[in-house]
Design brief:
disordered N terminus; 4-stranded mixed sheet
Length: 707
């Protein structure tokens, strides 16, 4: 179809061009309002000015106006700070107890009642400030283990997780956002099978995402079809018992336990199971319930830039930011659709020079967030300031591919993904060095670290370069010369990092970007994903509603396609397959392994991690499903998450219209009325209108009236 030249630029993202659902989410989540609900931000541009002003005010007075203008320009051209920044930067007069930080991880939960309850208190304060939080619970002794002080056996980690879950339910995070938590669990813990099955109980642990910490040793046992030991550190009596089977293995807590010369902890073997049986249990639970997730923890630690001073055991709630105890990170994403020139034409292209310009300004902007972090715990603030972690990523990858004429997952799209990720990384680290020269590096860069046997074992190149036990080496040298990730960078840039340090230890991660993609990016595809569908529904938590609200939206690419190519389309009609170009794919049309290949292409240049969900069809064969995870491991990913629509288990955030229409729900209301309806049918109940699917889910999961 011929298109006039003046229609070659995609619609801008001012209010007049945003979908109603996009404006609605901006209004409810990111627009600053007074306590009585009156808008302070009159327009989206006002929101951008507020954020730009708050971050520019961190600069020296003489350059604040310059950086305000630069930051505002970047915000108008694709830079989108994460939700906590958009909501809370410059909002201190209205909500002084909130944070601009999305990601945190709890301090290590020690195996004592006092410390468990201390961490519940810290977590409540963290969630109240608007931050998500992750924890590792496999530091707690297994169900049935003896507790000497109490003279009784313990109820195990999952019972304590219920306490954290209940606490999170009662804490409404700032800006209308409910609390978000991640629970990680070691694959060798004796209660791992209970952890894997936990969410099969209706309503249990629904304030958590769950992920297993998968080790290389376990994956080898699965491949070799050997047995797998389930272990926990031996107490003093067990350690002295010659009949107690013990093995040494790495453990996150060493104090109070017997260790060997390698720092491994003596652990009691509670049970031995076939590795493949445990693997199949995890795979079946993930197939049916979309959890637990799959964190390849050895790969995470091997590739960690701070390999010399921290061990990662958990992540933020969506998994894109692995963090040490009390770790915190700020997030932001660049909307890739803003850099597509001449979309939907044979000469469509991506504007890399402009992209690099936005990345450079955005890197400085994000660094300034550290100064206004608002974290509630001193340990969190100290950790953030010491390392100044950033997590810059992108959104709209799938939408951009469609606008450029690419098919998500093919060779051209994989090259494009790597190109975008590489340019983001190289530009960001170059700016990080310049900021270090101007403002000083992250403090850890100038700290001295003693060379240990473990460091020499992990990085043999240290000995080759002449370092010996006990040598004191600056953090900037250990990062620049021996980080696995930075080895691919140009030698000249690594030399500069070794000499001057960098303003931060980590620059990039790719978040799921759900509501910022829907609102400020006009429903560009989430993060690294393809579009879920081109016409579909989102289930949105709305303050005051008793169930989630179904919001109908168009994908960004379809929205732009209608404006640029097919402006006379019926806005209520579904584009049929023969009316859209063949590269207009969504998750239904993409092979799951192609998802993994795209993630691997980006991960090469992302120094933290990537939140990605591989959507598979309801009828996808289980044996093929398991192959997705093996492929992810073989490609060197740090994690893998899948989602398969299962209406009897739960209702997802994103729902295809055809899935709702094809699913019938049958349930009883509190008044005894029997309801049987299609998922997309509406029901009047308790003074509100609900979809049958959302009402069923709210009643089944126990959150009805508690949102």
């Amino acid at each position: 179809m011929a298109v006039s030249a003046q229609k070659r630029v995609p619609p801008n993202l001012e209010e007049s061009a945003l979908q109603p659902a996009s404006l609605d989410i901006w209004d409810s989540k990111y627009r600053l309002k007074t306590q009585d609900g009156r808008p302070v931000d009159q327009t989206v541009a006002d929101t951008y000015h507020r954020v730009a002003r708050a971050l520019a005010d961190v600069e020296e007075p003489s350059v604040r106006e310059h950086w305000h203008d630069q930051f505002f320009w970047a915000l108008k051209h694709g830079a989108i700070p994460a939700g906590r920044i958009i909501s809370n930067a410059g909002a201190q007069d209205y909500k002084p107890a909130t944070s601009t930080i999305n990601c945190t991880v709890s301090g290590t939960i020690e195996d004592s009642m006092v410390d468990i309850l201390d961490k519940v208190r810290e977590s409540g304060l963290t969630l109240k400030a608007g931050c998500g939080i992750g924890y590792e619970f496999s530091t707690l002794r297994p169900h049935g283990a003896f507790v000497a002080g109490a003279g009784a056996s313990t109820s195990g980690p999952l019972s304590f997780m219920d306490i954290f879950d209940a606490m999170c339910r009662t804490v409404s995070s700032a800006g209308g956002r409910r609390g978000a938590q991640m629970a990680t669990f070691d694959i060798a813990h004796p209660d791992i099978r209970d952890f894997v099955r936990a969410k099969r109980e209706d309503g249990r642990l629904r304030q958590f995402n769950l992920s297993c910490l998968i080790t290389d040793a376990f994956m080898k046992a699965v491949r070799d079809n050997t047995d797998w030991d389930l272990v926990f550190p031996a107490n003093t009596m067990e350690n002295q018992d010659p009949d107690c089977t013990k093995i040494f293995r790495p453990w996150p807590v060493k104090e109070g336990y017997h260790t060997n010369e390698r720092g491994e902890v003596a652990c009691r073997v509670y049970a031995t199971v076939p590795a493949r049986r445990l693997w199949d249990l995890i795979m079946r639970s993930t197939y049916d319930f979309a959890e637990p997730g799959f964190i390849l923890i050895d790969k995470v630690n091997e590739m960690n830039n701070n390999w010399f001073c921290e061990t990662i055991r958990s992540t933020n709630p969506c998994g894109e930011q692995p963090l040490p105890p009390y770790g915190a990170c700020l997030l932001g994403s660049i909307n890739l659709t803003m850099f597509v020139k001449n979309p939907f034409t044979a000469n469509a292209s991506f504007d890399f020079p402009k992209f690099r310009e936005v990345v450079a300004i955005f890197t400085r902007m994000m660094d300034n967030v550290v100064a206004i972090h608002g974290l509630p715990l001193p340990n969190q603030g100290a950790e953030l300031i010491r390392k100044r972690r950033h997590g810059m990523g992108f959104l709209g990858l799938g939408s951009s591919m469609v606008m450029l004429g690419m098919t998500y997952g093919d060779a051209e799209s994989i090259r494009f993904t790597e190109d975008v990720s590489r340019e983001l990384a190289l530009t960001g680290w170059q700016v990080g060095v310049e900021l270090a020269k101007e403002k000083g590096p992250a403090p850890i860069m100038d700290e001295l670290f003693e060379i240990t046997p473990a460091m020499l074992s992990q990085r043999p190149q240290l000995a080759t370069d002449g370092y010996t036990l006990g040598d004191q080496v600056p953090g900037k040298v250990l990062l620049a010369r021996y980080s696995r990730y930075l080895q691919q960078f140009p030698e000249k840039l690594r030399d500069k990092i070794a000499e001057f340090g960098c303003r931060f230890t980590h620059h990039s991660s790719i978040a799921p970007t759900g509501t910022i993609a829907l609102s400020l990016a006009n429903n560009a595809s989430n993060g690294i994903e393809p579009s879920f569908s081109h016409q579909y529904s989102r289930n949105v938590i709305r303050q005051g509603r008793k169930t989630k609200e179904k919001v109908d939206v168009l994908s960004h690419e379809l929205f732009c396609y209608r404006a640029l190519v097919n402006p006379n389309a019926d806005p209520d009609a579904m584009e049929t397959e023969n009316r859209l170009p063949k590269h207009f794919v969504d998750t239904n049309a993409i092979d799951p392994k192609a998802h993994v290949d795209i993630q691997a292409a980006a991960q090469k240049w992302i120094d933290s991690s990537i939140s990605k969900t591989i959507n598979v069809a309801s009828d996808y064969p289980f044996e093929k499903f398991k192959e997705i995870y093996l492929h992810a491991y073989e490609k060197g990913l740090k994690g893998c998450t899948t989602f398969r629509f299962n209406p009897q288990a739960f209702q997802g955030v994103l729902v295809k219209q055809e899935d709702l229409a094809a699913t019938r729900y049958r349930f009883v209301l509190e008044n005894g009325e029997m309801i049987e309806a299609r998922g997309d049918e509406t029901i009047e109940y308790d003074g509100e209108t609900h979809t049958a699917a959302n009402l069923y889910d709210a009643l089944k999961e126990g959150y009805y009236g508690k949102l």
